[in-house]
């Protein structure tokens, strides 16, 4: 059976999703009988323009060069998969989209902002090209990526559950930090996939896996308010890592509206 030709590409990001794979490099190597990595610069394979069966993309589109590159990449990939919050929802860098003039941010960060070429906003990959599968997380869980690779190698569409972190907590018998401890937990509206890592250790979920399939942000906003959080604090819960994801963006901006 022919091996699956795979590439892994970086756009505007911190490399965390690629590192999530490299942290399990032995498992990556065990895929060698079914997968041929054609481009994965951090693993030593460099051929960014090669035609592939599956292209995994980390990072958002933030520069004119990246906009051109993602369109070319889409032409060369039979299946395109976004990995992580940046590629799937714009990530932390999309926070600049909330400002009226993003150039102020650039000037505050870079000593020579005139040399920094940026688009007017930072967007998810799906803003520019068709995406076949979105794997959320900050960073993505490597198990999700390996599972997707195995399924695609077998010609099976990968499963991508959209239930909430609360469902995971129930299955693992975690104490609910929202109900039992009054912590402002984003679990009720956040997609599962992390294994409920924070609630498992008594911490409130902060939404790094993006919105679940069913989001009741109005009810959660009311619950946060009952815990004593003001409008700005509530907005920050939603306008964080996945600030540009539709349901979170709407909830965050609504919380900031004058009463």
Q: What this model shows, in words?
A:
With 259 residues, the chain is an alpha/beta fold. It has helices at residues 16-22, 25-29, 64-76, 85-89, 103-109, 142-153, 165-171, 177-181, 197-200, 217-226, 231-238, 246-256, and strands at residues 4-10, 35-40, 52-58, 77-83, 133-135. It contains 12 helices and 5 strands. The chain has a 5-stranded parallel β-sheet with strand order 2-1-3-4-5. Helix 3 (64-76) links the parallel strand 3 (52-58) and strand 4 (77-83).
Can you give keywords for this protein?
259 residues; alpha/beta; Rossmann fold; 2 domains; five-stranded parallel sheet
- Segments where pLDDT lies below 50 for 5+ residues? none
As a percent range, the share of strand residues is 5-15%
Indicate the CATH class of the largest domain. Answer: Alpha Beta
What is the total number of structural domains? 2
How are the strands ordered across the major sheet?
Answer: 2-1-3-4-5
Give the distance, in angstroms, between the N- and C-terminal Cα atoms: 62 Å
Q: What is the mean pLDDT?
A: 92
SSE pattern: EHHEEHEHHEHHHHHHH
The H-level CATH homologous superfamily of the largest domain, spelled out, is NADH:ubiquinone oxidoreductase-like, 20kDa subunit
User: In percent, how helical is the residue content?
Assistant: 25-40%
Secondary structural class: alpha/beta
Give the helix/strand layout.
Layout: E1 4-10, H1 16-22, H2 25-29, E2 35-40, E3 52-58, H3 64-76, E4 77-83, H4 85-89, H5 103-109, E5 133-135, H6 142-153, H7 165-171, H8 177-181, H9 197-200, H10 217-226, H11 231-238, H12 246-256
Helix pairs in contact: 11-12
């Amino acid at each position: 059976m022919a091996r699956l030709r795979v590439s892994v590409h970086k756009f505007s990001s911190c490399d965390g999703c690629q590192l999530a794979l490299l942290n399990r490099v032995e498992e990556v190597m065990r895929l060698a009988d079914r997968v041929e990595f054609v481009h994965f610069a951090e693993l030593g394979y460099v051929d960014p323009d090669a035609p592939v069966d599956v292209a995994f993309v980390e990072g958002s589109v933030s520069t004119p060069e990246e906009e051109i590159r993602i369109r070319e990449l889409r032409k060369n990939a039979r299946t395109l998969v976004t990995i992580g919050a940046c590629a799937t929802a714009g990530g932390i860098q999309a926070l600049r989209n909330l400002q009226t003039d993003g150039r102020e941010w650039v000037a505050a960060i870079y000593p020579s902002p005139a040399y920094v070429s940026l688009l007017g906003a930072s967007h998810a990959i799906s803003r520019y090209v068709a995406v076949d599968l979105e794997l959320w997380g900050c960073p993505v869980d490597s198990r999700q990526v390996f599972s997707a690779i195995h399924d695609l190698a077998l010609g099976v569409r990968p499963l991508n559950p959209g239930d909430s972190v609360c469902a995971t907590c129930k299955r693992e018998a975690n104490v609910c930090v929202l109900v039992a401890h009054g912590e402002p937990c984003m679990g009720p509206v956040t997609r599962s996939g992390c294994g409920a890592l924070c609630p498992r250790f008594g911490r409130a979920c902060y939404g790094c896996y993006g919105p679940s399939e069913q989001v009741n942000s109005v009810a959660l906003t009311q619950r946060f308010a009952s815990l004593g959080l003001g409008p700005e604090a509530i907005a920050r819960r939603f306008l964080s890592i996945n600030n540009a994801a539709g349901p979170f963006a709407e909830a965050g901006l609504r919380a900031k509206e004058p009463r």
